[in-house]
TrEMBL record:
It comes from Salinicoccus roseus. The keyword Signal applies. One of its GO terms (molecular function) is phosphoric diester hydrolase activity. Residues 39-280 form the GP-PDE domain. InterPro entries: GP_PDE_dom, PLC-like_Pdiesterase_TIM-brl. It comes from the Bacteria. Residues 1-22 form the signal peptide. This is Glycerophosphodiester phosphodiesterase. The lineage of its organism: Bacteria, Bacillati, Bacillota, Bacilli, Bacillales.
Length: 285
């Protein structure tokens, strides 16, 4: 994990050129990676194939479907409150329009965040980060994605403070993970709360992920979570060799879910957590 790579980099300076050799010399992570393990079932923005994303309805559905984690997206409102929203604009998932941080929390709470998905969800509100922590802590894991960090200065500190206030920042807290496409944001968050697991998100890149990137990530991250189109058995093995885990996104096809499980991924991020459950059930005890 993070501390492993400090030793790994020292070994690299002594002339070990191959990342896998370096990890072997430094000592492997104590994480066990094997084909018989349970693959974490991560509900993308909640069970967003069945309910409006990033709402309590979607999170309740994920619980009902026995997901291991809900994945949520966080941004800041105009008045600096941490709220759940994936897009920079509110147009797609509410009856409002404009940029998230042009609205105060009180104004965001007036919006309908459910009707766009179906009339049965009319009146669903945009939740705050603290509301989600209070409602689901101890019931399900929470994978927190920091969105647009450069547009929301101080968001890392606010996420960290909310976790600290609830004693959710303790060592061996395996049910909280913080991730972002902004890798600098994750390095900063790791410095704030080093006992909370962190992850780097990777968009699709035909050139893949280099050993140099993995070595850098492992100094501050516990997970590498790439677009699933980048993932093959070799990448899974390399990430594991650097002492990290992998939970690719967003997979809504049963055959691909099964294939990724065969590769040994640690988690699957899906809009349909029941599909991940189906993949786990027949193949893993």
């Amino acid at each position: 994990m993070k501390t492993l790579l400090m030793a790994l980099l020292l070994v690299g300076l002594l002339g070990i050129s191959n990342g896998q050799d370096a990890v072997s010399a430094a000592g492997k992570s104590n994480v066990s990676h094997n084909a018989a393990k349970h693959t974490m079932n991560i509900a993308h923005r909640g069970a967003s194939g069945y309910a409006p994303e990033n709402t309590m309805a979607a999170f309740d559905k994920a619980l009902e479907m026995k997901a291991d984690y809900i994945e949520i997206d966080v941004q800041l409102s105009k008045d600096g409150k941490v709220v759940l929203m994936h897009d920079a604009m509110i147009d797609r998932t509410t009856d409002g329009s404009g940029i998230v941080d042009d609205y105060t929390l009180e104004e965001l709470k007036q919006l309908d965040a459910g009707s766009w998905f179906g009339p049965q969800f009319a009146g669903e509100q945009i939740p705050t980060f603290e509301e989600v922590l209070d409602a689901y802590r101890g019931k399900i894991g929470i994978l927190i994605e920091i969105k647009n960090a450069s547009q929301h200065p101080g968001i890392e500190e606010k996420v960290a403070a909310a976790l600290e206030e609830r004693n959710m920042d303790k060592p061996n807290n395996g049910k909280i993970i913080v991730q972002s496409f902004d890798h600098g944001s994750i390095a900063h968050f790791n410095a704030l709360l080093p006992n909370v697991d962190t992850g780097v998100l990777m968009g699709y890149n035909a050139e893949g992920i280099s050993d140099a990137q993995l070595a850098q990530f492992a100094t501050y991250a516990d997970y590498v979570n790439p677009n699933h189109h980048m993932v093959d058995a070799d990448l899974v093995s390399r990430i594991h060799d650097y002492g990290m885990r992998i939970a690719p996104y967003t997979i809504n096809d049963q055959s691909r879910i099964n294939e990724l499980m065969e590769y040994g991924v640690d988690g699957i991020i899906s809009d349909y957590p029941d599909l991940v459950g189906h993949g786990n059930a027949p193949q893993y005890n």
